[in-house]
Fold this sequence. Notes:
The chain has helices at residues 2-12, 17-24, 29-33, 41-58, 60-70, 82-97, 101-111, 116-126, 132-145, 149-161, 167-175, 185-196, 199-202, 208-221, 225-231, 243-257, 263-274. With 275 residues, it is mainly alpha-helical. The protein is globular.
Amino acid sequence: xxxxxxxxxxxxxxxxxxxxxxxxxxxxxxxxxxxxxxxxxxxxxxxxxxxxxxxxxxxxxxxxxxxxxxxxxxxxxxxxxxxxxxxxxxxxxxxxxxxxxxxxxxxxxxxxxxxxxxxxxxxxxxxxxxxxxxxxxxxxxxxxxxxxxxxxxxxxxxxxxxxxxxxxxxxxxxxxxxxxxxxxxxxxxxxxxxxxxxxxxxxxxxxxxxxxxxxxxxxxxxxxxxxxxxxxxxxxxxxxxxxxxxxxxxxxxxxxxxxxxxxxxxxxxxxxxxx
Length: 275
């Protein structure tokens, strides 16, 4: 794979970065889950992260050279710069996962720039990397866009999806953040959706992630039943997971079904339990 990818980078890198990024991009976790009879969500997350770090380390020189080549094209307006930005985003992710210190330093300059696409891309690259640059970059992004709620939703989502040891505490802080609008569906989806995509936290073996989500859905249902019913669908594959996850999910679903819910949310929960 390393040899093939290196050849593809050399052949397509400058000429067709969009096709290159499509060829190199790994499947998302939702797609990977479909390939397992009994889904191991944390195992899949860690396996994907391992591959990205492996490719980032093994292709470091090729990716570094490519980043220099694509730098100017990244500034082109849509649609000309789309492919360069997409490939640059993937290169940053792999290099950061592979332990490239230079990417972490460069991230700060990118976040302070005027490209929203590249800012989000570099923050996504740093998301699984526990380093001080990640926190500085997130703070810089927040300070730059805190007056723009639509853009700030990206920050809320990223913060909620970072695999921290104290992740539940951080998500709770986000839900109580002065800039968080508890009545805005997009803001709610940013935080709770970001949390649900946080494999190590949401799918924690002790079930705390499922319990926390169930509690949030019950609370949300009191003020926004439609959004609550949509968020409840994060439990829809509960029977497909390994027993330790499936049983914990079932307990949270049962707790939800026993709560006082709106007709919309109750219908979704009962449908999920019947599947």
